[in-house]
Amino acid sequence: MDAIILQILNGLDKGSAYALIALGLTLIFGTLGVVNFAHGALFMIGAFCAVTVQRILNLSVETVDESRTDFLGNPLKVKTPYVENWFGPEVGATIIDWSVPIAILFSIPIMLLIGFIMERGLIKHFYKRPHADQILVTFGLAIVLQEVIKYFYGANPIPTPAPDAFSGSIDLGVLVGFDPNAIIYPYWRLIYFAFAALVIGGVFAFLQFTTFGMVVRAGMADRETVGLLGINIDRRFTIMFGIAAAVAGLAGVMYTPINPPNYHMGMDFLVLSFVVVVVGGMGSLPGAVLAGFLLGILESFASTTWATTTIPGINQIIIYLVAIIVLLTRPRGLMGRKGVMED
């Protein structure tokens, strides 16, 4: 039982990333009808927002410490971060330690701005073009963004640790009645799942209970009629594109302590996230979230020693096998609207 619980937790961890990225993809497809293959790059940019904040907070000034000497007897040169000079050693060290959570505040306006620029500068010209054209242009944009990140940050993964308070693990087994050390799980992965649940709940609440969200949902169902009522639905859809970009960016920021950011991480998640969207149902927000967590749990169980020994490589193909089965039996996905992807 403890092994099953552990695999479910691992699945929820992976599913959180899949669900957040798929949620943004579905928001864009449901509102604008655009297949955005650059969405994985937004996840990557969010992760590098955290890297950038970490580097900014670690900017240092070099001073000479007369009380200390090097091996030649010369006064020792010491680098002190500016934040420690400004706020004191203890407060400054705490700010640097919490660089990833601080990056959330930094990334939200950045990702909103990038989303607006992408939609107004490029995506809007492809609304009425075939999906194949949309895929080609957004995939090309993703490659460009990937190479820009590679140029400025290099090709190697960049460690971005979680705050020290959440860098360890918790004994979940004791909390639910198991023997000590039966279920040990990292704090930050639990925080990532809780954060994903909070963001997903916030997006659904925004769409469900605000006037803006109600108009957006009406526009998703019948864009032309909403436009005839005198509502500037295009402007609202542009804002939703920015929100979708922010959701992907936040997913990337919080994922950095789990997997050190690298320039191709967006592509790594992009294909899997599109599979999640297709399985959940194109345009279905609940379907994207459900499929994200479901496929994350299936992938986790398929990665166990028993599964990989029984069927070698099953962990690499399980998501695609599920997608094939779903598309053969229910082309519109688990919760897709009737007629979508069925003609």
Automatic annotation (TrEMBL):
GO terms for biological process: amino acid transport. Its main location: membrane. InterPro entries: ABC_transp_permease, BCAA_transport_permease. Pfam families: BPD_transp_2. GO terms for cellular component: plasma membrane. GO terms for molecular function: transmembrane transporter activity. It comes from the Bacteria. It is found in: Cell membrane. The chain crosses the membrane at residues 16-35, 95-114, 190-216, 237-258, 270-298, 310-328. CDD domains: TM_PBP1_LivH_like. Keywords: Amino-acid transport, Cell membrane, Membrane, Transmembrane, Transmembrane helix, Transport. It is a multi-pass membrane protein. Belongs to the binding-protein-dependent transport system permease family. LivHM subfamily. This is ABC transporter permease. It comes from Roseovarius indicus.
